[in-house]
């Protein structure tokens, strides 16, 4: 028992610091995707409701492709693809030698795209929940489309969308473990390293689970706060 | 068929198709089976969970919250791992209650883990769609004395499914992709087969094959869901 | 000058991460010896097995020293040096199982486990699978091992040395070695990018050099008590 | 019907009450309701007999909707006792459910089921609560839809109807359950005067068949013609409980006088 | 205001028209609207001058809401021309937006923004469309909320209001935009008679200040007192266009006669 705990401790013989470092990578990566992924998803949702056929097509293709492609492939495409492209380009200008695309940035780009594609469906379904009368009232008041979206639709949207978005977020948090394939040491990477080194799979996968659970407990708290904030006006009394 | 094949083989190597085509199909079938079964089981369990989560009973509410929290909060991979390898640690017990046949078989374990996992995600989707339902609908049900089952089946479900269907599509696609995780316990789906083939040939092309297959699945799903959504939105027909 | 070495670091006792950070194992020691011989710095970069060849090609590192067996398919993607050790495969079965021998027909209807994406995995599929065994492929041999212990598997095919190592460390009381599989001797070599002949030649010379000066034999003795070249 | 109620009824002291008066169907005592801090209903006492046609009126925000919603248990009152058909509806659901089945309601905002056609809106509850079979339920629905002039719109969805049409469907839906007590929350607000008259006829006929009605309305003409009794609410209190003739000619309370003055002016 | 309109106005031939009559603000010609197969509006011609107070009445489902929703471009008409303040509102959004900004509307179902307080509902549009600053907008909102008796409920959310209170907020919200034309869809349906009178006063004062009003209502008393002109719709046609006195005493069309008979009876 004691040596098991020792394995989780800090310092020379323990894996605690490695696991925490992995957790930091995971959470930073996921957090960095949020400011790109969710708004882009909203944009895609707006696009697929657009009156312009072109906008609808682009939105549909985006959502199908980035939901359909295995995340690993998206990641590879962004990471190796952009690297090979950059290298070709540089060689074209006569520069020989390696270019290294930052793995973290590649991860953020790839997962933002995936997050956007999945969240766009959630946004879209939330749009359906808003009665047509709201948009009509906004038009009758002469509100611009931007004001309508931002002041009328969005706050009502959030209440319905939040549970779905929290799904997206939690999925993202765990999908980021794929970055280990482009040599970023996230939670899962560190865990599997620890497992191979110590042959204590139950212990370390359990620890990883606990780390994820802590992350999702914190985010669950934030989400239910946000939900409370957006549904307060609709509560009776 | 022939011209299609020749077209395909002009940019995809036929040898690859020959040696792994059948296995890819078998993997595809595993994916379809795993996803559809676990999705349906998860759908049922998901509704139970969301009812529990909204119930007036504190204990039930707490339990379903805990369930949602655990299954959404931890990776499916870990859940499957714990279920599959964790259960085998209690082999003696399972044998004594005559359930070892279940936990011994990786397929059942995978199905169970996937159903439990997707139930949690689906429950949250359902909760969102219930939030979207105007309070007046529930009041009308009560005023008409519709029983809980009738209110649910005839009034609440059809309306909330309309809202839920998009995110449910997401969940289904995620399941399709997550089925790759089942190869962790030796249940090889499309992606599992792909990886296997890739690790033998190191031909990146096989991934493109898999990607095409995935895109196909997603596109079919998307279209089916659009049709269903259209049916559920008939009443809005202006 | 540094040599960037890619490795999987999930294949003890050949390569595994150490709690101190960094990696330990036979492959690492050999790599260090080679680097010393070549008078370069070794830099180890861990990489999932599935992505290890693409990563090499994308210049994440310059050589793979990760117990990679030479196969025809791999040779189409990368160039290999001469082997730095050779290994055959073995089969482990539960202690009380009654297997008559290693021949394929003995495995009909049995459940055989192996690591996926590995030569034992291919062997299990190609030989036992064709003979009517149910082949299950695991991400790593560890998981296959624990299923052998729990009774989900009837037999486990794996590379000989790791298998011995696993039985020694874990569960020697549960299982026994059925024997070496004939005709499965594999060359384990270093992979470099196609066309990177300069490096390949240097590595080849280095391998011969560490064999000549005896440092190879010392490492091999330390890990396995015999020379596995 | 219920012996101990007799004295309570007498104590209530309506002029025309006698020992053979109709049984009490709704009996409210000391009802108080708060929304948060806001005291919406104050010490409401009300006794309704079978076949009564009661009109609730009063200024906007006086608590009329709240009162009838409490009777239907759509709102929980914090204090007081509400007996409907002899059962305290603040009790366990298993006891109150059969009683509440006999209480119908027409909402101020209609609350039709948007995903069901007019016909399906009307047959859903009779089929699943009353156990009617489809043809019977449809027949009944046609009957009532006909009465409110909506027979021609059977297969439309609520979103395809005008405001008044929706309101009429809502009335028909409530009637299809053939409840013993029916609560109307401004059932004619969206109707044109012609239609008001038709609906009024339906309601008079209902009342004649022994159905008890509580109706919130702002149409004083309607009140004058249908009501057997008028309740005037203000700020959560019943300030006047009178027969319509006296209410409109010589209201007792000052508040009601002021209210009526505004209309008659 | 607009020279070519002059002849059209004369051809319309209202008795009191003269060369110095107020300018035309709404001009509808040959308007036809279908919902799927259903022909909801048939060949509507209508000319409204600045300051007119027009009441639209007619049986439920006759197309009143549809008509005023077309004027506001909430529904697209399939045929015909609708000029509002001199601009064809069936044109590009960039052209029609500034015009439609001057057209206010009060909905039959209120359509308040549920996530905003009463005050925020009222100041949102003035601030973001008219560019008012918060204190000005609030002052204006208080002014109108006061007029409809909702000053005390500033900080409540719509879900916490009674039906009539919601309706009054909806009226105040529309007024806060100080539109040149205002369309009411049954603005008093949920109001008690007292409140109706107050709202009516507000509307009369609005009209006096030159605002043009189109009001769908079922309250004939209201029509009698406020209207400058009464339009009677039936089955999608304007069957009568008259001044209120003649409309109520000697309606020209038979349909209107039948309609009025029902009420007066
Ligand atoms: N979306 C729709 N699809 C089909 N028919 C519709 C739709 N909207 C309205 N209608 C029909 O058009 C007709 C006119 O509707 P409208 O709402 O204009 O009536 P209204 O005069 O406002 O009636 P009310 O006084 O009851 O509100 C009605 O018969 C209605 O059934
Ligand atoms: N959920 C709530 N939270 C806070 N206050 C509420 C709530 N619901 C109603 N109220 C307040 O309670 C009072 C009574 O409301 P109620 O709906 O019963 O009025 P009403 O008599 O039906 O009015 P109306 O004729 O306008 O429909 C109102 O002043 C309203 O503001
Ligand atoms: Mg009310
Ligand atoms: Mg209308």
From TrEMBL, chain A:
<feature type="transmembrane region" description="Helical">
    <location>
        <begin position="20"/>
        <end position="45"/>
    </location>
</feature>
<keyword id="KW-1133">Transmembrane helix</keyword>
<dbReference type="Pfam" id="PF00528">
    <property type="entry name" value="BPD_transp_1"/>
</dbReference>
<dbReference type="InterPro" id="IPR010065">
    <property type="entry name" value="AA_ABC_transptr_permease_3TM"/>
</dbReference>
<dbReference type="GO" id="GO:0022857">
    <property type="term" value="F:transmembrane transporter activity"/>
</dbReference>
<protein>
    <submittedName>
        <fullName>ABC transporter permease</fullName>
    </submittedName>
</protein>
<keyword id="KW-0812">Transmembrane</keyword>
<keyword id="KW-1003">Cell membrane</keyword>
<feature type="transmembrane region" description="Helical">
    <location>
        <begin position="99"/>
        <end position="118"/>
    </location>
</feature>
<feature type="transmembrane region" description="Helical">
    <location>
        <begin position="57"/>
        <end position="79"/>
    </location>
</feature>
<dbReference type="GO" id="GO:0043190">
    <property type="term" value="C:ATP-binding cassette (ABC) transporter complex"/>
</dbReference>
<keyword id="KW-0813">Transport</keyword>
<feature type="domain" description="ABC transmembrane type-1">
    <location>
        <begin position="23"/>
        <end position="223"/>
    </location>
</feature>
<feature type="transmembrane region" description="Helical">
    <location>
        <begin position="202"/>
        <end position="223"/>
    </location>
</feature>
<dbReference type="InterPro" id="IPR035906">
    <property type="entry name" value="MetI-like_sf"/>
</dbReference>
Automatic annotation (TrEMBL), chain B:
<protein>
    <submittedName>
        <fullName>ABC transporter permease</fullName>
    </submittedName>
</protein>
<dbReference type="InterPro" id="IPR035906">
    <property type="entry name" value="MetI-like_sf"/>
</dbReference>
<keyword id="KW-0812">Transmembrane</keyword>
<feature type="transmembrane region" description="Helical">
    <location>
        <begin position="66"/>
        <end position="87"/>
    </location>
</feature>
<keyword id="KW-1003">Cell membrane</keyword>
<keyword id="KW-0472">Membrane</keyword>
<dbReference type="InterPro" id="IPR043429">
    <property type="entry name" value="ArtM/GltK/GlnP/TcyL/YhdX-like"/>
</dbReference>
<dbReference type="InterPro" id="IPR000515">
    <property type="entry name" value="MetI-like"/>
</dbReference>
<dbReference type="Pfam" id="PF00528">
    <property type="entry name" value="BPD_transp_1"/>
</dbReference>
<keyword id="KW-1133">Transmembrane helix</keyword>
<keyword id="KW-0997">Cell inner membrane</keyword>
<feature type="transmembrane region" description="Helical">
    <location>
        <begin position="206"/>
        <end position="225"/>
    </location>
</feature>
<dbReference type="InterPro" id="IPR010065">
    <property type="entry name" value="AA_ABC_transptr_permease_3TM"/>
</dbReference>
<keyword id="KW-0813">Transport</keyword>
<feature type="domain" description="ABC transmembrane type-1">
    <location>
        <begin position="24"/>
        <end position="226"/>
    </location>
</feature>
TrEMBL record, chains D, E:
<dbReference type="InterPro" id="IPR017871">
    <property type="entry name" value="ABC_transporter-like_CS"/>
</dbReference>
<dbReference type="GO" id="GO:0015424">
    <property type="term" value="F:ABC-type amino acid transporter activity"/>
</dbReference>
<dbReference type="Pfam" id="PF00005">
    <property type="entry name" value="ABC_tran"/>
</dbReference>
<dbReference type="GO" id="GO:0005524">
    <property type="term" value="F:ATP binding"/>
</dbReference>
<feature type="domain" description="ABC transporter">
    <location>
        <begin position="26"/>
        <end position="260"/>
    </location>
</feature>
<keyword id="KW-1003">Cell membrane</keyword>
<keyword id="KW-0067">ATP-binding</keyword>
<dbReference type="InterPro" id="IPR050086">
    <property type="entry name" value="MetN_ABC_transporter-like"/>
</dbReference>
<dbReference type="InterPro" id="IPR003593">
    <property type="entry name" value="AAA+_ATPase"/>
</dbReference>
<protein>
    <submittedName>
        <fullName>Amino acid ABC transporter ATP-binding protein</fullName>
    </submittedName>
</protein>
<keyword id="KW-0813">Transport</keyword>
<dbReference type="InterPro" id="IPR003439">
    <property type="entry name" value="ABC_transporter-like_ATP-bd"/>
</dbReference>
<dbReference type="GO" id="GO:0016887">
    <property type="term" value="F:ATP hydrolysis activity"/>
</dbReference>
<comment type="similarity">
    <text>Belongs to the ABC transporter superfamily.</text>
</comment>
<dbReference type="InterPro" id="IPR027417">
    <property type="entry name" value="P-loop_NTPase"/>
</dbReference>
């Amino acid at each position: 028992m004691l040596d098991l705990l020792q394995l989780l401790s800090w310092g020379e013989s323990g894996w605690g610091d490695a696991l925490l470092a992995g957790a930091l990578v995971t959470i930073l990566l996921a957090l960095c995707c949020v400011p790109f992924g969710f708004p882009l998803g909203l944009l895609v949702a707006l696009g697929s409701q657009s009156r312009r056929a072109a906008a609808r097509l682009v939105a549909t293709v985006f959502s199908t492709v980035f939901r359909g492609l295995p995340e690993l492939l998206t990641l590879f495409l962004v990471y190796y693809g952009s690297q090979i492209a950059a290298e070709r380009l540089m060689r074209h200008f006569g520069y020989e030698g390696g270019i290294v695309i930052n793995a973290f940035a590649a991860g953020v780009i790839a997962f933002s795209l995936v997050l956007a594609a999945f969240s766009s469906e959630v946004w879209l379904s939330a749009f359906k929940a808003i009665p047509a009368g709201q948009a009509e009232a906004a038009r009758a008041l002469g509100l611009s489309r931007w004001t309508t979206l931002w002041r009328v639709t969005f706050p009502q949207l959030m209440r319905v969308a939040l549970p779905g978005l929290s799904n997206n977020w939690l999925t993202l948090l765990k999908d980021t473990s794929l970055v280990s394939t482009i040599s970023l040491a996230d939670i899962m990477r560190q865990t599997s390293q620890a497992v191979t080194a110590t042959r204590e799979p139950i212990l370390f996968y359990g620890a990883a689970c606990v780390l994820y659970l802590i992350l999702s407990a914190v985010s669950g708290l934030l989400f239910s706060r946000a939900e409370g904030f957006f549904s307060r006006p609709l509560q009776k009394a | 068929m022939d011209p299609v094949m020749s077209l395909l083989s002009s940019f995809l190597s036929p040898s690859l198709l020959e040696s792994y085509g059948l296995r890819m199909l078998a993997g595809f079938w595993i994916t379809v089976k795993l996803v559809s079964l676990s999705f349906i089981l998860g759908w049922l369990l998901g509704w139970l969970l969301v009812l529990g989560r909204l119930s007036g009973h504190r204990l039930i509410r707490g339990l379903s919250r805990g369930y949602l929290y655990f299954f959404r909060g931890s990776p499916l991979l870990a859940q499957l791992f714990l279920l599959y390898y964790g259960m085998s640690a209690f082999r003696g017990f399972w044998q004594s209650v005559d359930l070892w046949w279940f936990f011994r078989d990786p397929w059942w374990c995978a199905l169970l883990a996937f159903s439990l996992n997707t139930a949690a995600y689906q429950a949250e989707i359902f909760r969102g769609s219930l939030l979207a339902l105007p309070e007046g609908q529930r009041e009308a049900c009560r005023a008409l004395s519709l029983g809980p089952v009738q209110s649910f089946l005839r009034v609440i479900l059809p309306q909330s499914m309309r809202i839920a269907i998009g995110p449910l599509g997401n969940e289904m696609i995620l399941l399709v992709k997550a089925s790759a995780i089942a190869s962790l316990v030796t249940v090889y789906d499309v992606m599992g087969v792909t990886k296997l083939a890739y690790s033998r040939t190191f031909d990146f092309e096989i991934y493109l094959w898999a990607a095409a297959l995935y895109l196909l699945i997603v596109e079919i799903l998307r279209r089916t869901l659009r049709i269903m959504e259209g049916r559920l939105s008939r009443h809005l027909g202006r | 000058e540094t040599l960037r070495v890619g490795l999987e670091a999930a294949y003890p006792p050949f390569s595994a991460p150490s709690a101190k950070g960094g990696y330990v194992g036979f492959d690492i020691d050999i790599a260090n010896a080679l680097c010393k011989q070549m008078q370069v710095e070794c830099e180890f970069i861990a990489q999932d097995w599935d992505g290890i060849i693409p990563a090499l090609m994308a210049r994440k590192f310059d050589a793979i020293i990760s117990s990679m067996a030479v196969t025809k398919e791999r040779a189409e993607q990368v160039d290999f040096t001469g082997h730095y050790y050779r290994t055959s495969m073995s089969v482990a079965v539960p202690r009380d199982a009654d297997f008559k021998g290693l021949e394929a027909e003995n495995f009909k209807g049995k459940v055989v486990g192996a690591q996926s994406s590995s030569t034992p995995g291919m062997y299990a599929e190609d030989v036992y699978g064709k003979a009517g065994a149910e082949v299950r492929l695991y991400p790593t041999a560890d998981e296959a091992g624990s299923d052998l212990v729990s009774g989900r598997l009837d037999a486990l095919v794996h590379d000989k040395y790791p298998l011995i190592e696993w039985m020694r460390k874990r569960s020697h009381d549960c299982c026994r070695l059925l024997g070496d599989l004939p005709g499965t001797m594999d060359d384990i070599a270093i992979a470099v990018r196609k066309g990177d002949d300069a490096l390949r030649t240097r590595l080849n010379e280095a391998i011969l050099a560490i064999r000549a000066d005896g440092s190879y034999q010392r490492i091999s003795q330390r890990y396995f008590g015999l020379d596995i070249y | 019907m219920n012996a101990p109620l007799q004295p309570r009824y007498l104590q209530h002291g309506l002029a025309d009450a006698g020992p053979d008066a109709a049984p009490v169907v709704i009996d409210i005592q000391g009802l108080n309701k708060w929304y948060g801090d806001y005291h919406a209903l104050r010490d409401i006492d009300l006794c309704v007999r079978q076949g009564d046609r009661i009109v609730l009126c009063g200024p906007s925000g006086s608590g009329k909707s709240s009162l009838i919603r409490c009777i239907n248990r759509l709102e929980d009152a914090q204090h007081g006792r509400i007996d409907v058909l002899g059962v305290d509806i603040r009790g366990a659901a298993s006891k109150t459910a059969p009683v509440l089945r006999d209480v119908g309601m027409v909402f101020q905002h209609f609350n039709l089921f948007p995903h069901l056609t007019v016909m399906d809106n009307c047959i859903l509850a009779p089929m699943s609560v009353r156990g009617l079979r489809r043809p019977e339920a449809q027949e009944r629905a046609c009957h009532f839809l006909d009465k409110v002039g909506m027979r021609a719109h059977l297969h439309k969805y609520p979103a395809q109807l005008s405001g008044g049409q929706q309101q009429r469907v809502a009335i028909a839906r409530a009637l299809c359950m053939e409840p013993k007590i029916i609560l109307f929350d401004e059932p004619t607000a969206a109707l044109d005067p012609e239609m008001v008259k038709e609906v009024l006829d339906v309601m008079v006929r209902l009342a004649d068949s022994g159905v008890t009605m509580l109706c919130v309305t702002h149409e004083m003409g309607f009140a004058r013609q249908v009501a057997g009794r008028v309740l005037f609410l203000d700020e959560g209190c019943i300030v006047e409980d009178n027969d319509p003739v006296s209410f409109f000619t010589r209201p007792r309370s000052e508040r009601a006088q002021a209210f009526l003055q505004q209309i008659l002016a």
